[in-house]
Every structure is written in structure tokens, then in C-alpha cells.
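Before going further, learn to read the protein records used in this course. Taken together, the C-alpha cells spell out the fold as the letters spell out the chain. A record is reproduced here so that you can trace the correspondence yourselves:

***
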Amino acid sequence: MHKKNKMPQLDLEVATGINHSDISRIENGKLNIEFFTMVKLAAALNGELVDFFK
């Protein structure tokens, strides 16, 4: 979603407080994402939780 919104991982890290290396691991399927993390990411990206499942 952040690539679609053209938001660099570092900007996403600042907006969510989630380490950019964790964001990368989530994107690559190497780290399971928790519900609260999805909420923070969706809010930072002006998206909805359902967007993670499309």
C-alpha cells in the first residue's frame, strides 16, 4: 500500500512508529502482522483495513 501511495518506508516509519526494517519484513511475508499494526499502517496510508486483504 505504501508503494501505491508513493510513501517511502522511512516516512511510513515516522508516521506509524514502526521500524522500517519491520515494515520491510511485513511486506516480504517474513514477519506476521498484528491487528494493531495493521490499524496504524492503514491510518498512516489513508486506507482501510480491508485494503490489506485485497
About this structure: The longest helix spans residues 35-44. The mean pLDDT is 87.
